[in-house]
Amino acid sequence: MATADWNPLGNVYYRNVELYQMDWNGLLELNQYMIAAAPYGGPIALMKDDKKTGRVSTNVKPIINVYNAAGKPLSQLRWNSGNVVHLGWSNTEELLCIQDNGVILVYDIALNFKRTFGMGQEAKEMKILDWKVFSSFQGTGIAVMTTSYRIYLINNVDDPRVRKLAEVPDLNSAPSSWTILNLDRQSRALVAKDAQLFLVDHGGQYQEQFPELASPVTAFIEMAVSFNNKLLAMFTDKGVIWIGSSDLKKVYCEFNTKASQRPQQLAWSGVGAVVALWDKLCIVVGPEKDWIKYNFESFVYLVQEEDGLRIIGNELHQFLQKVPDVTEQIFKIGSMEPGAMLYEASKEFSRRSQKADEYIRMIKDKLDVAVDQCIQAAGHEIEPSKQKALLRAASFGKCFLTDYRPEAFVDMCQMLRVLNQVRQFSVGIPLTYTQLNHLSVPVLIDRLVLRKLFCLAIRICHYLKIPDAEGASRILAHWACYKVQQKHEDEEQLARSISQKLLDAPGVSFSEIASQALEQGRKQLAIKLLDYEPKASEQVPLLLKMDQNNTALSKAVDSGDTDLVYTVLLTMKDKISNMGEFFMAIRQMPIAYSLYIQYCRQQNPKLVEDLYYQEDNFLAEGNCKVVSSYSEEMFEDRIRKLEAAITCYQKAKMEFASKQTEDQIKLLKIQRKLEDESNKTYIDMSLHDTMYKLTQNGNHKMTEQLRKDFKVPDKRFWLLRMEALAESSDWTELERFSKSKKPPVGMEAFVDVCMKYYNRTEAMKYVNRVTPDQKVKCLVKVGNLKEAADSALESRNEDSLNIVLSKAIQSNNKQLIETIRDYKIRLNTKK
Amino acid sequence: MAAAGPAHLSSGKINLGVLRDHYRRELIECIDKCTGTKALVWDDALTGPFGLVAEYSLLKDHEVEKMFPLGPKTLQASNVQNIIFLTRPKLKLMELIAQNLLNEDHKGPQRTEFHLIFVPRKSLLCEKKLKEMGVFGTFTSVEEFSLELIPFDNDLLSMEIDTTFRECYLENDFTTMFYVAQSIMTLQALYGIIPYIYGKGDCAKHVVEMMRRMKGELGGREPQITPQIDNLLILDRNVDLLTPLLTQLTYEGLIDETFGLNNTSVKLPAEKFIPKNQKPDEPLEPKKFILNSSDELYADLRDKNFNAVGSIVSKKAKAITLEFDERHQAKTVGEMKQFVTKLPHLQKARESLTTQTSIAELVKEATNSDGFMETLRCQQDFTNGLETDKIHPYIEECIAKKDSITKILRLICIQSYCNDGLKPKILEYYKREIIQAYGFEHMITLMNLEKTGLLKIHGIRTYAIIRKSLKLIVDDVNEQVPNDISYVYSGYAPLSIRLAQYLARPGWRSITEVLNLLPGPKVEEIQQIPVALRKRRNSITSSHSSTGEQRVTLVFFLGGVTYAEIAALRFLAQQDEGGTDYLIATTKIINGSRLIDTLKEKIESVKINPF
């Protein structure tokens, strides 16, 4: 019978399911140990407790053992630190060993030391009296009470910040009991001073609490907070259990156990019942004063879970839970729920009985509910055979439905498969379906990784089709980190086997594995592994750390990340004291080399010149010299720089450049001379500008000299002179110039230059000398439109006439417009 | 951040508002890391781009109370709790910042905290520099804000890094290419993996290689978005150095050539924009205009050939007058009301019309000058392959008249390109003329131009073949109602855009030979997209949709793009048979003068000591 192990508690049922036969059975007696078991089916840590064995403490250091939930040993450690008073687990399954001086040492599940922190100076000096490990809104918290009855707490063991709680007034002896309550995202302590209750926080406040009490109380001697932090149970010295809300505002019941002795453990089973344990007897009390009694054959230890209570004993590991509603609906004797009917139908069907049909007919219109119920109920079963029977029923029911969405069924099958795997004795994580939903699959996978169950974890990822980047890759990376710690394996082989497995996995950080290898002192392995790292930004710094400069440089260059290249270059420069050697090293990489030059150009231009010199880049060296010559203040220095540049250009066989530089020196010397003579500035002017200035100053002889010396082309010389003369209004000289020799420029250029300096009269002189085809254009330029029109008519050029017309329109000369239109008609008729 | 930003960014085929929001979120995250009131100290080059991403009111909402430009002087006094420096990672700027901080020290102890935000990326060198100057420890935090591609318009993104071409081809420094690759990765994170990648040129290849690496670094954590961009075309400016050198003849291009457009805004002489009867007594500050597609008329005009602008403006003017006149016909109250609701829109349109008319007049003045026309004629000679192998009289004359050196270098470079390099004698003549006329210091600039290939000794003849096979010269160009991209340069079709055009149809395979003649390798790569994310094409349902099957191609110009090229791409996108929509990204929007200017060697001469 499915309901054989059900016990009624008021109108609900409780059942005690067997999870495991303990592996440690016969090897140890639990009552001699300090016990810590992590929630969510976590590991169990045991440490021999001298007080419990009653033996005189010896100098032998105690041993800490960690077991999985099935009692299979996972790891062992001989304790060699201070006096451990309590063990606890954090929410990331780290073992917290609390010493009597308030120092907490943190170990991972394999008992590798992780870190340590203290609970403050007072705890250290005064020693601690009592302690609580609790789950806070930030993670796992720890609270300790010092021998001076002050409470210190931290909210998160990953980020330990010690807070001091307010003082309870007139507390001169140890409180009769206390616990930590999590309300409104704040952790506060509820302290019982006999019958008085105080709520203290770290803001220095305390509040006395007055819960509703039916029977008189002299002292609260035990407290228990439910897993979800919403409910509180308190045990009084009169044997009464007070059950209420954790804010003490609501009371559910007071139940008199008539026990005078303090219970060994007071705990919640889920949120529905409080369990009090005395040695081998335990009482389950419901909110309506209903109760069940259980007897155990030996010492047991209780672990609160979200949806029940785990009971760990020498032989058995059991799970006490409220029978889930949906399970009750299906299996309760005489239940007429659709799920129950469907389950029956399925059973009859497998017996080939026609009754199956009858049952189905009875629930025809509620078949979808029935299927849902069977799927849900399957989730709550621990036994695979029961899961199967229920799923079979669901599947059977689904056959009669046309539009039932299959997701729920498929999801449940997948989850159950995963759950059954991790519940296996060898894995030993007895999670329920409810717990897994809360914990989430990624966290479960993390926990498997912590237990080094890499293969199982990867299989689960693949089975659930978790993307590789989030699942398999991460696991493989952990595996590889673990692998490089195993020193007995051959490096070559190790690198190969790691890369083989990880190369196709996206998003694996090889540099992380490599740095792990480096930490283990395996440099060669690290270098080999780093070669597989796709992220240059992580690869390069590590390569530098290992002195692999050249590899680092080439990897940085390949990445295209300039900053990374500079990181390498500057590190190398610091490391290699010999500059020549450094240059040799970077010369092989043109990009790195150019970047270094870029850097020097901004920081140290002289160094750039040296660099070019070193590699016989004479052209670039010459250019550097030319550029730097301009910043020389002394004339002689400037000339000297330029002369040096000429040598460079000659070496580089740059004839043009060296000739130009020579010319520049020549020009500079002339300019210097001119400055001395005329007290005007000439230096830094171009040859052209120098000649221009000379012309304007009337030094025509010198201008002529320069023209010859520097072979200035005729045409440019003419234009230059014309412009200079016109600007300085030397119209006579201009005219004389126009008549000398045969000008290489047309007369229209003279017109232009005159007009540029607004001398129409002078311009007119040249208009008469221009060639006929340019005449109209020039007349337009001087603004004589009428004459331009006449001239255009004369030369019978309609295009020119049109140009004049457009100008006339622009200047809005109506009379002229008429005339030109007239001309145009004349021109056309003549044709 | 509820505001989706200016509406015009979201109106394109790809919603660039998403990108803008992404940057705003990152910026705010950066700024919010320090609590309390803040003052921002800006690297000047950043203010323009930032203005396009985050307006002052947004910063104000996050307790930014004051903003100063970064200068050599001491910081202005302000009683804020935090001073945040926003800067590009340049050593010069680090010196300024250090000076500022050291001056601050003299003022004695203060409670102000200092922060530093690098844009777009932290730089080790800069941090080292700050350490050397002993101020690095003063910063409470050093962050980076990766503002890479700034949305200029609904189809246009720019990184606003103007030295790219110089760095890549003169200094062998490919840092910007790394930023480009990262910016494409950002785009892919927001708009999905781009399935097909094409590229031409050394830098393009470099970028594609880095993208491949970065993809590897993502390690399978790729964005699970259906790709919105189908193709990526990366064009290295080196592949087409001719186009940017030519004078752009679109409206927007000419505004840029004559007045210079920076971050979509232009400064114009203010006299033109005040009513004629109230002449001011003193010269006015130039007036600033923001030009983008949020102005309907401008959106219409910007990509037109300038010769077509007049007719559009007058048509628009008539239309607006007509609409205003409607009020006379309005008889009933209902009609009147309808008119009034239209009024704000009409007034805005009229205002925009006045502005655009004035701008067009200003541009017209510039283009009417003889110099402009002759320059254009000279350019057209060259692109047609005429007179390219002798000294051009116009260039000679310009040198003699000492016209702007940039203009001359532009022309000579065009000649060099169209002649596949100049005869040694001609090149030497030009160089000597320039040195004599403008000074010896330009010799290095000329060497720079030679090093980048803008000037060269003549080699294998390829230009004629390229010109013919890509139909670069179109004689019967229609400037009013264009039927080919050549309208943007009145008869010359930009080579770069021809490449994009051929890629879309019929494909690059048809022009393999020409591609081989152009410098740099060709890149083609396919990025696999998971089946679930692929666009479903040619399915039965989509054939009904009116939007059709337009593919989106992102064209990334490494080393800059001109407004005329942008116009040509937009023209292609509008063609019915094109079937391709274009999203344009670039390191910087350039024109010939800007390109040449970055290659100039800046030499400052100290005054000679007279003794």
From TrEMBL, chain A:
PANTHER family: VACUOLAR PROTEIN SORTING VPS16, VACUOLAR PROTEIN SORTING-ASSOCIATED PROTEIN 16 HOMOLOG. Residues 3-411 form the Vps16 N-terminal domain. One of its GO terms (biological process) is endosomal transport. Keywords: Endosome, Lysosome, Membrane, Protein transport, Transport. GO terms for molecular function: actin binding. Residues 508-821 form the Vps16 C-terminal domain. This is Vacuolar protein sorting-associated protein 16 homolog. One of its GO terms (cellular component) is late endosome membrane. Its main location: membrane. InterPro entries: VPS16, Vps16_C, Vps16_C_sf, Vps16_N, WD40_repeat_dom_sf. Core component of at least two putative endosomal tethering complexes, the homotypic fusion and vacuole protein sorting (HOPS) complex and the class C core vacuole/endosome tethering (CORVET) complex. Their common core is composed of the class C Vps proteins VPS11, VPS16, VPS18 and VPS33A, which in HOPS further associates with VPS39 and VPS41 and in CORVET with VPS8 and TGFBRAP1. Interacts with RAB5C. Interacts with STX17, MON1B. Associates with adapter protein complex 3 (AP-3) and clathrin:AP-3 complexes. Belongs to the VPS16 family. Plays a role in vesicle-mediated protein trafficking to lysosomal compartments including the endocytic membrane transport and autophagic pathways. Believed to act as a core component of the putative HOPS and CORVET endosomal tethering complexes. It is a peripheral membrane protein. It holds the Pfam family Vps16_N. It is found in: Late endosome membrane; Lysosome membrane.
Automatic annotation (TrEMBL), chain B:
GO terms for biological process: vesicle-mediated transport. SUPFAM superfamilies: Sec1/munc18-like (SM) proteins. It holds the Pfam family Sec1. It comes from Patella caerulea (Rayed Mediterranean limpet). This is Vacuolar protein sorting-associated protein 33A. InterPro entries: Sec-1-like_dom1 (IPR043154), Sec1-like (IPR001619), Sec1-like_dom2 (IPR027482), Sec1-like_sf (IPR036045), VPS33_dom3b (IPR043155). Belongs to the STXBP/unc-18/SEC1 family. PANTHER family: VESICLE PROTEIN SORTING-ASSOCIATED. It comes from the Eukaryota.
